[in-house]
Specification:
By secondary structure, the protein is an alpha/beta fold. The protein has 2 domains: about 300 residues, Metal-dependent hydrolases (TIM Barrel); about 45 residues. The chain is built from 15 helices and 9 strands. α7 links the parallel β5 and β6.
């Protein structure tokens, strides 16, 4: 039976119900019952970035001592039935050599995901469809879905979309922090390259529709977003984004985008990266220290693997020296409330971005996922609505995309 940990921090933050009918214990019991029963899926984590460094998914880790926030035992502890494990590649130059390098790195990460599942066949299995997820859950195993984060490894060869589909990718995040051959990013400081989706990007979207791969619009520029909706014949997802009305980040979707996503039939998966949930308080000393590390290492995409490990270590040391004020589950559910108000209950889910920056004060790692359900119950969400938020909406889109290619 699934269970989850109710953290001391949750209680200390004052998550106590004052309702004359229901006590906090009753809220918790109700939430636990719902959390045990519904299929819970996280649409985005970056945990595979550690697989190449020997990270062991079968061992329980301490998230307060290292960067890891996800492993199989902790997923079980937190009542998380499945997750999309990201095959991530950073955006580099648009040259043949760099595109090929990204392609090879992506293939290596796919292999590492399969090796991880193969190492622990009693704990997890690869899932290609929602049906696979439910089957694995009944077997007491974690469902490992795969998403390709950044279409950069596709290069300029649309045939690679089929190759990544064959490897198990069931969504592709079309870009990351910078523009690529497919589309413009929401955060490229150089500005737009294509003024939205490129002609090649339109081919990619059409091929994804044909194969049955979900199109992920997280990280895309606003113009790219609308271009995708104009081209796609299937619902799309934003695998890890939030509401711009509550936090003015270009990575978030504004209300018009949320309405358009709902009209498309798609879903936005709520990210729990603090800077997407609320604007961070300025900290000049920390910002100066971070800038010094950025200058020391230069362009991330030109670093060797050893240099990247060194850079991560220095950034981790900075986070310990200058800890940021993390957002809370309440902040995250505020965004859910807003999306439900604007787009409707059928268009919201959860995509944590764990091991890629995600983590809240009271949902710091995967063991504390149940705290989200507690807050949803506290705010009056029903069992059926929570089931939609925790995976029902995403699986609906996934099935529609799969069936649309037939």
């Amino acid at each position: 039976m699934k269970w989850f940990r109710i953290t001391v921090s949750l209680l200390s933050l004052g998550f106590l119900i004052t309702c004359s009918v229901c006590s906090q214990d009753e809220i918790t019991k109700k939430a636990l019952k719902i959390h045990q029963k519904v299929f819970t899926v996280d649409s985005h984590n970056d945990t595979p970035m550690g697989f190449g460094d020997g990270f062991d998914m079968g061992v329980t880790h301490d998230s307060r001592k290292d960067r890891s926030k996800v492993d199989f035992p902790r997923m079980k502890s937190g009542g998380l039935d499945g997750a999309f494990f990201a095959v991530y590649t950073g955006q580099g130059p648009l040259t043949d050599e760099s595109r090929q390098s990204a392609y090879e790195k992506a293939k290596a990460t796919f292999e590492q995901i399969y090796m991880t599942a193969g190492k622990y066949p009693d704990l997890a299995g690869i899932a290609l469809t929602p049906k696979d997820g439910y089957r694995l859950e009944k077997q007491g195993k974690t469902a490992m879905f795969i998403g390709l984060e950044n279409g950069y490894p596709i290069g300029q060869d649309v045939k690679r979309v089929q190759e990544f589909y064959n490897l198990g990718a069931r969504y592709i995040t079309l870009c990351h922090t910078k523009n690529n051959d497919i589309c413009d990013s929401s955060t490229d400081q150089k500005g737009p390259l294509h003024n939205g989706l490129s002609p090649f990007g339109k081919e990619v979207v059409k091929e994804m529709n044909h194969l049955g791969i979900m199109v992920d619009v997280s990280h895309m520029s606003d113009k790219s977003f609308y271009d995708v909706l104009a081209v796609s014949t299937a619902p799309v997802i934003a695998s890890h984004s939030c509401a711009r009305a509550l936090c003015d980040s270009p990575r978030n979707l504004d209300d018009n985008m949320l309405k358009a996503l709902a009209e498309n039939g798609g879903v936005i998966q709520m990210c729990i990266l603090s800077s997407y949930l609320k604007s961070p308080e300025p900290n000049p000393e920390r910002e100066a220290a971070e800038e010094a590390v950025y200058k020391k290492f230069g362009d991330w995409d030109k670093l060797s693997d050893d240099q990247k490990r060194e850079a991560r270590s220095e950034f981790q040391a900075l986070r310990k020296k200058y800890p940021e004020e993390l957002a809370t589950v309440k902040d995250m559910v505020d965004h859910i409330d807003h999306v439900v108000k604007i787009a409707g209950i059928d268009h919201i889910g959860v995509g944590t971005d764990f091991d890629g920056g995600g983590g809240l004060k009271d949902c710091y790692d995967v063991t504390e996922m149940g705290n989200i359900t507690i807050e949803l119950v506290k705010r009056g969400y029903t069992h059926k609505e929570i089931e939609k938020i925790w995976g029902g909406n995403l699986f609906r889109v996934m099935n529609e995309v799969i069936n649309g290619n037939k």
